Amino acid sequence: MAFSPQKPPGKSKASNSGLFRAFHPETMKEKGVSWTIAMLSIIFIVVFLAIAEYWGEEPDRFDVVATAAKEGKVKDAKQLPLGYTYATTVIQVAETLLTKPGGFLVNDMFPPGVFEDNMPSWEYGALTALRDSTSALRNHIARAQSQSKEDPDLAQAEPFFYFDHTSWQLPSSESEYQKGIEAMRRYRARLSTRDASFFSRADNLRQYLEILEKRLGSLSNRLSASAGDTGLVAADLVPQNTNPADRRQTMPKTPWWNIDDIFFEARGYSWAAMHVLKAVEFDFREILGNKTALVSLQAIIRELEAGQAPYLSPIILNGGGFGIFANYSLTLANYIARANAATIDLRNLLQQG
Length: 353
Description:
By secondary structure, the chain is an all-alpha fold. It has 13 helices and no strands.
């Protein structure tokens, strides 16, 4: 009597035939180029996403006083001339824009940089704060009075930083901003030799705070518009020739595709402005102490720092009302609005004398 061998227990051959067939050398040979292209495409997508994630990380904070002491090669930053910390901070912010992972991405025309969304908005916000601080230095802080001759290096640095941030060739934004950094370095070097001026006066600081106040107010308003239709538009936001009956209108809601752009622009501006204000705290320490305004300045810095807290969601959430989802834009708007209020208080203190 003949006995046929029994199949061993476990999964049948049929259940695994599809998997074996897919990776069988003959099958792979038959697929040829199409299989290779598919595998390379998968690898490319994975690498692309990894690079995009790495390039999208926001730069870390830096210690403005320690950085200035290191650049000035002194142990105690108080040995540095007034303005050295401020100038160093401006330079460091500009260099961060150019040397962070991925470099300057706003003007990228090729992947993966051209597909970045959040970081270019962050860069534009930080660049705006850089321009504000450089303009205040050139037009106010480095001049003894309104009719004083402007500093030649600052007169070169400011226009370079105002160059179009979307230009990618002939000349590129990066090359022009690098020229601005070099001009700022020359100004800083002349501060060390007492051949350049930095006047840490209350009126000079008020000029910068006035710019900061308007920037923060605008950012807070734009962030709040993520909720939309929640309140009446402020009177000064409606044209004066508008019919009085039409002046009572609700705030238009920010389109959903622009919410994250405004959020990261505000984060970028807050990051750069926070460092500049820390430099102001050091270089204007005498005038701030005399007018008991140091507490107000530290309140601004504290609110801007709070707005830099890491967010847990992979996307920017903007839930409505008291729903289950948080509204990141309103949260950041709250910090910036409080910083704006502290800026107004500080400017009033400095004006009162």
